[in-house]
Amino acid sequence: MYLNTDIIQGNILMQVTKSNGEQEAFSVEKIHKVVMWATKNINGVSFSDIEMNANLSLYDGISSAEIHNILIKSANDLISTSSPNYQYVAARLLNMQLRKQVWGYGDQPTDFLMFLERNVDNGIYDPRILEKWNSDQVDLFGKYIDHSRDDKFTFAGLQQLIDKYLVKNRSNGSIYETPQFAYMSIAMCLFETMEEVKKAYDCYSTFKINLPTPIMAGVRTNIRQFASCVLVDVDDNLDGIFSSIHAVGKYTARRAGIGLNIGRMRPINSPIRGGEVIHTGLIPYLKNFESAVKSTSQNGLRGGSATVHIPFWHYEIEDIMVLKNNAGTDDNRVRKLDYSVQFCKIFYDRLIANEDITLFSPYEASGLYEAFGDNEKFEELYLKYERATSLKFKKKIPARKLAEIFARERLETGRIYSMNIDSANAHGSWSVPVYMSNLCQEIIHPTKPIKSIDDPDGEIGICILSALNLLELGNEKDIEDACRMAVRTLESVIDYQDYPVLAGENFTKNRRSLGVGITNLAGFLAKNKLKYDDPSALELVHETMEQIQWNLINASCELAEEKGACEKFADTKYADGLLPVDWYKKEVDELIKPEYNMDWEGLRKRIKKHGLRHSTLSAIMPCESSSVIQNSTNGIEPVRSLLIHKKAKNGILKQLVPNYRMRKNYYTMAWDMTDNTAIMNIAAVIQKFTDMSMSTNLYYNYDHYEGGNIPLSVLIKDQIYGYKYGLKNFYYANTPDGDGDTEKGMNCESGACAI
Asked: Quick check: 492 and 264 in contact, CB under 8 A?
């Protein structure tokens, strides 16, 4: 026996307190049996090591729950690059604990119908789930559930699922469901036929489709807002500003991340009511938005988060860009919001030529903001206002100075982002102007400021998200099926969810915009023995993204044939007969030849006949939180370590990259990359087939630069390079934080990347 059996003191046998309060004699054999079960058929693990590592501090009256927690911790502590499979042992032990809490025992599941009835009766689940399906159908669903799929979870994945996604009472910690019951319940809420429910369950539970936080945590409950991203365009008047604050509060409370656009607002000291009042500037209003975001907890799942968007030419841009920095006083800092600066061709032209740019007031420079995004119209107006002599709010600064302020703040905080507004308009599916992006910089929608919280004419951009797990899609048929299921899942979400603000409902039901992304790219490339800088990687990504986008569009066309095209389909380039292979930035052809395998012309003909059910179909989100559940590398990111550490509520979660033993030598390590060229090239090819945008992160390792100092010019060059190849947004600028596994900007305590 490997556990310390010296448990007799004064010839008195130690007692264990059971969950029902009763006591029984401590049994080494019981513990031995549990550990043997947890290690069965798992290679490279030892039950004796777990028992010895447990080092139980036994005492008379110790609870059975505490003993189990000690065993879980023991297995978790043994997870390492030399012993990766302890992550599955720890997961089994954790799952046993979870099942005991939910089912009352740890081996056989409770009756599914009884489970649903209990949760509905207790107000935990949406009652319509039992109104929709009869008892016979529920029994069949229960028999279809495969609880052995829980073995796919690593400890980190299951712990993340428990902490953030399984329905629980967050006051007392009571958990009401197990993973497979949750996946099936989600499918039952979203689909209308038994066949579709089963297909959806299979996709979710085998990790082919990655469900974002609002859907995974919300569908089946009585909270019926499942959009990940909300875009609020703020008007230049008090009614618009405070209506926007109201909308932000409503959506933040329902788990949505917020994109804010303040580009329309006039700057400080502007006259109001003919000069009767002088404008206080943007910063006091941003503090109001910050309060609205942070005062709503999103049900304990995600900290409220927002990214503020502002054009490079705004009169207050210099003050806005430094708001995130820890220097200065509370009066001139708004640190709990993130910021994105919007650039376009005229800025880059003048930056490269080392010329000045001019800052304006959107109120005074009439029409300039509305033209932003259309290079020809914008440049004409911009030059006109530069020549004008009557403008009070006009200031020249070197383009390089602004670029350096931006780069410095981006390097120091990691959380100043950028948006190339002209690329967003030219190389996406929208034929109407777009002015902003979202919290995580992957969504691009047309928006219209609201005048009141019930304004029927405003548009709050909303996007429903999911992602395809590339490592779980083995062939073309897998891709086709997963794309179809992802589109139909999100299509169902649009009609199933409620809308707390009318402007959001109008946008969503008229435009039906979806954002299907990809995750586990690093694992996918490693599976194919490719590094990010391998030319063959670009070929594989090009081929794969072509298949994905084609199948997403095809799935939307199928739904248009069944249900009709979305009401505002005419506002898309798809309606004009254009496709991603037409509107992408042609400089991408320098990276890879435009050779295609899919029938784009046949698809074009079908769209002309039937239209599309959705205005957009693809966006590449971070998947920073949800990827942990699936033991997936997050989004399109290279890995920072083969043994990844994730911050969690109860400490650090350890997780090995997928298929560590076989493929560890093929992973691209972010901190080993001497520059961001390979990442941006990969992103450019992905962007070619993505009709919205992507959360593109860049990496800067101090060790690669003389004296450990990263020149600002490096960040500026990356901005220019990304713009050249059609990248619409840059998200985090990551630097190592000292431990090699995490980095500045990606800790996500704000919830910004908890998608």
From this structure: no
Residue count (the chain): 755
The CA-atom distances, in angstroms, between 627 and each of 410, 422, 451, 521, 694 are: 25, 31, 38, 11, 16
Dihedral sign for Cα 263, 265, 266, 267, please: negative
User: With pLDDT > 90 as the criterion, what percentage of the chain qualifies?
Assistant: 81
Distance (Å, whole) CA 285 – CA 482 = 43
SS3 13: strand
Q: How far is CA 374 from CA 197, 367, 596, 722, in A?
A: 44, 12, 29, 19
Q: Per residue in 25-36, pLDDT tens? A: 888 888 889 999
pLDDT of residue 55: 67
The single-letter DSSP state of residue 457 is S
- Arithmetic mean of pLDDT, 480-486: 98
Distance of alpha carbon 181 from alpha carbon 158, whole angstroms: 14
pLDDT of residue 552: 98
Provide the 3-class DSSP secondary structure of residue 339. Answer: strand
* Phi/psi at 651 (5° precision): 125, -155
Check pLDDT > 90 for residue 432.
yes
First to last CA, the chain: 46
The pLDDT tens digits of the residues spanning 63-118 come to 888 888 989 999 999 999 999 999 999 999 999 999 999 998 767 789 999 999 99
Query: Mean of the per-residue pLDDT values for the chain?
Result: 92
Beta partners for residue 308, in sequence order: 260, 339
- Taking the C-alpha atoms of residue 341 and residue 750, their distance in angstroms, rounded to an integer, is 20
Name which residue leads in pLDDT, 170 or 697: 697
DSSP class per residue in 82-148: SSTTHHHHHHHHHHHHHHHHHHSSSSSPPPHHHHHHHHHHTTSS-THHHHHS-HHHHHHHHHH--GG
Dist. CA 387–CA 298, nearest whole Å: 48
Does residue 494 register a pLDDT over 80? yes
User: What are the phi and psi torsion angles at 333 (to 5°)?
Assistant: -135, 140
pLDDT reading at 732 higher than 90:
yes
What is 244-313 written as a DSSP string? HHHHHHHHHTTT-EEEEE-TTS--TT-EETTTTEE---HHHHHHHHHHHHHT--GGGTS---EEEEEETT
Encoding tokens for residue 736? 């190592």
Tens of pLDDT, residue by residue over 649-693, are 767 889 999 999 999 999 999 999 999 999 999 999 999 999 999
Q: Cα–Cα distances in Å, from 179 out to 148, 175, 217?
A: 11, 11, 11
SS3 549: helix
Active site residues: 438, 440, 442
Hey, which residues does 17 pair with through a beta bridge? Answer: 23, 63
Q: What count of Cα atoms within 13 Å lies in the side-chain half-sphere of residue 119?
A: 30
Kindly write down the DSSP assignment for every residue of 186-215, as one continuous string. HHHHH-SSHHHHHHHHHHHHTTSEEPPHHH
SS3 sequence, 581-615?
HHHCCHHHHHCCCCCCCCCHHHHHHHHHHHCCCCC
Q: Are 404 and 716 in contact (CB under 8 A)?
A: yes
Provide the 3-class DSSP secondary structure of residue 35: helix
Question: Is a pLDDT exceeding 80 seen at residue 355?
Answer: yes
Long-range CB pairs of 127-135, under 8 A, 24+ apart, other chains included: 128/189, 129/185, 129/188, 129/189, 129/220, 132/188, 132/189, 133/188
pLDDT of residue 277: 84
Using a CB cutoff of 8 Å and minimum separation of 24, what contacts does 348-354 make?
Answer: 348/719, 348/720, 348/723, 350/399, 351/399, 351/400, 351/403, 351/716, 351/720, 352/720, 354/398, 354/399, 354/400
